[in-house]
Structure formats: C-alpha cells, structure tokens
Amino acid sequence: MPMILIAPIGEVDETPLKRVADFVGAYYSRFGLSTGMLPEIPVEPFSRAFNPIRRQYLGRVFLPTLANLRKRAGGTAILGVTEVDLYEEGLNFILGLANPSLGAAVISLHRLRPEFYGKGPDEELLKERAVKEAMHELGHVFGLGHCPNPRCVMHFSNSIRDTDFKSPLYCPVCEEKLAKNLGVLV
C-alpha cells in the first residue's frame, strides 16, 4: 500500500507528532495512502544547513536527505518534523517547505509554538497548527499550489494568524485537484 512516511528530525515533542500522524493517516486513507512513523533522525547530519548568524537552518538542505530516506523505505511521500527554526534565502523564516519532485517536505514546530509569540504553552493550539502545516506541505508534495481561499489549508500563511484562521482541510477545489493528482475518484 502506498505510504506517507513521517520522520522526526532531532528530539521532537511526541504529542504534536502523534496528532499529525493520526490526522494525516485518517485523511489520506481515503486516497489509499497509509502513514508510517520512522525512527528519529539526528539533527547533526544537517549541521551544514545551520546559519550561526541567523541561528536557523536552511530548509532546503533537509529535503534531499528526506527524499533518500523515502526511497529506501519505499514511501510515496515523506514529511520531516523538527523543532529547529527554518528559513529560506530572502525570507525571515519558513514554517515548512516541500519539493514535489523529491516527494519530500519538512515542517518546523519552532514558530508554531504559542510560547514563541510570548503566550503560555497551549498543547491543543500547537497540535492544530502542526496538523495544518503538515497538510499544507503534503498538499505541495502532491502537486497543489497556494489557494486564494483563506479557509483552505493550502492558503499561504503570511503570519501565524493566517495559519490559525484556516482549516486543516483542503477546500473542495483543492481536494478535487488532489484526488486527480493521486489518480483517485472521490
């Protein structure tokens, strides 16, 4: 059965990780995809991605390693989940990144945590945000672009408020594209 692999990178809080795996698994099962959790990947192999001035990791460096892991494990797609702060050139930060041709995506919990914004810890909010970011990046892996519908999970988040506003699900237009891209009739 085709599978979406979830790979914790470094020490990752198990609570949002489990919620992501459960939600993604339940949602994508309707398209004939299962999910599987891989053992933790150490952060050290990605040390070349670390920018000591920014104190962030360049997101794109994670994707080829994840893609190789996906191929070795026989997965259809792979989602890396990490606690480290990610960025891309020209951007202050990214919440996640995907490359459809590699079948790989990565999300960071770092800026999804309410504590990052001076709030108290909120495990439920963290889990909701992690699910939305996972669904968004997996949508990209499966060929979806950004959506103009602000409630669709594929809507681009300019801020954490945008993430909080959108749903964890694809709008009907994006879901139809997703089904077509996956070769499934819904």
Describe this structure in words.
The chain is of the alpha/beta class. It has a single domain (3-143), classed as 3-Layer(aba) Sandwich (Collagenase (Catalytic Domain)), CATH 3.40.390. The chain has five helices and eight strands; from the N terminus they run βαβββαββββααα. The chain has helices at 14-28, 62-73, 123-141, 160-165, 172-182; strands spanning 3-9, 34-37, 50-51, 56-58, 77-82, 86-87, 96-99, 104-108. The strands form two sheets. It has a five-stranded mixed sheet with strand order 2-1-5-8-7. A hairpin with a 4-residue loop joins β7 (96-99) and β8. α1 packs across α3 (123-141). The radius of gyration is 15 Å and the shape is globular. 41% of the residues are buried. The mean pLDDT is 96. This is Archaemetzincin. Belongs to the peptidase M54 family. The active site is at residue 137. It comes from Thermococcus waiotapuensis. It holds the Pfam family Peptidase_M54.
What topology does this entry show?
Elements (H helix, E strand, L loop, with lengths): L2 E7 L4 H15 L5 E4 L12 E2 L4 E3 L3 H12 L3 E6 L3 E2 L8 E4 L4 E5 L14 H19 L18 H6 L6 H11 L4
Parallel strand pairs: 1-2, 1-5, 4-6, 5-8
Antiparallel strand pairs: 3-4, 7-8
Helix pairs in contact: 1-3
